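Hey, can you fold this?
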Amino acid sequence: MLKLRIAALVIFIAGLALGYFAFANVINPSWFLGNFGYRLGLDLQGGSHLVYKADVSGVAFGEVRESMEGLRDVIERRINAFGVAEPLVQVERSAGEERLIVELAGVFNIDEAVRLIGQTPYLEFKTEQPEAERNAILDAQSKGQRLNEDPYFISTILTGRYLKKSILDFNPSTGEPSVLLEFDEEGGRFFAEMTRENVGRRVAIFLDGQPISIPVVNEEISSGSAQISGQFTPDEAKALVRRLNSGALPVPINLLSQQSVGPVLGAEVFRRGLVSALYGILAVLLFLVLRYRLPGLISVLSLGFYIVVILAVFKLLPVTLTAAGIAGFILSVGMAVDANILIFERIKEETRWGRDIESALSEGFRRAWPSIRDSNISTLITASILYWFGASIVRGFALTLGLGVLASIFSALVVARTFLLAFDFYRGRSAGFLYGAGGAHK
């Protein structure tokens, strides 16, 4: 009993700390915790809306789709480096033109966004550092020196400007995919020299400063072309070809329109949505207290703990909140209530069958667990599929729903159980009334 009471006290204090962190911006914005704000999507806070036209006149008809997907990948990497959360980058065909739509939530400096998006991706080939130099750089970096140097690879003159194109190929014997690189005349000479001097060593291919492939040179290559082979899946090899072509020959884009947009929903609509959600949650909590009495009151505390945990997680990750994401959060609150109802109804059944309240509490949690587990696993599977395959706004809904389900399981099975068993209200004459018991009690 003492351990349970200590656990209940720890949970209560943790809930207060998380609650302060979740609402720090409201309570005292001047404190450092107030710097942790919530990220809001374009529909809630507004941002920048950019429309680009892609010039695909120099692209073969069958390669237009691949080129546009490669362009989208490049733009997304640029935006992620810009620090924008949950950007929406999509390709569409309009009036016979290939267009790229970019929406950046919370970004109102359109000129800076346009500058970053419009930069040409940088593709480069690097060779391995000599062992002595690598060790020297690593030793210096351990002392806080030469921090801007790469200890593993050296930049070369060979960059994406010398790459004509890359092609997806398959080994006719094994069926394994590979990537063929074709350089222009000058690039072919540079590549032959680089491979001749690095036989048996690795050559790294970097795109936008990130390594995308690090093959080993088997022999000098003087044909002006190269092959990258490895443990690729067809999709991985296809993505690599797309990235290489995007880095070497990016599809030219022209900015058609740019605008700063306000919240799509509007502040008033958003406020009304939150107020209605608050009223709905309060109505559910009132029902729990009236229907289940003391267990219902305990479930209110556990749901409060659940809410501050989720809000704190939203700040720490941070999760970009959209209208769909908030809907997923509210839906997960309802699912947390479902778990409590399953438990409390099971407890009432146990007392009707003659168990005393103390044993009915433990048995109710144990027997309700399989139903709670199975229903929440199915929801988590659905949320995972939505997050994996869904668009940006759908992924926000799936993420908040999945996090909410995990936290709701903890609040129902750990927090509520700890508080119910930590204090022996189930003893005494009023126990039957407090727990709504229909059978024997002590």
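Oh, and this one too while you're at it.
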Amino acid sequence: MIGMHYWFWFILGLLLILLEVAVPGLISLFFGLSALIVGALCLFIPIIPWLQWVLFSVLAAILLASLRTWVKSMFGGRASQSQAIDNDIVGQRAIVTQRIMPGHPGKVELRGANWSADAAETMEPGTAVKVIKKESISLTVERI
């Protein structure tokens, strides 16, 4: 009877891993992995129920402390790369290709690509501008 609890741990592990998909934060993933490990151990080794909970808690803490930062960096690398591109664009020189008026974005050419751009003053095509802000796929520019 002691080893019969393995199915509980497998179900709990799968539910916790699915919870990670619904509520990302890289925490329930490690609790789910811990539950799967305890379930696998219970399948082969009879472990008394209170010790299963202790093992689950200790494994979850170890996995969380040792792997969360590493796993998070695997998924977070693209965001920091995007931020570096944003910082690289701000301050760059561009040329207005379509009239920009306050409240009515126009277009600028920056590094051979056309961008939607807004400005505090009206600017005609051919005007040299400097990028002062990048927000999503739109730029805010000012006259040089």
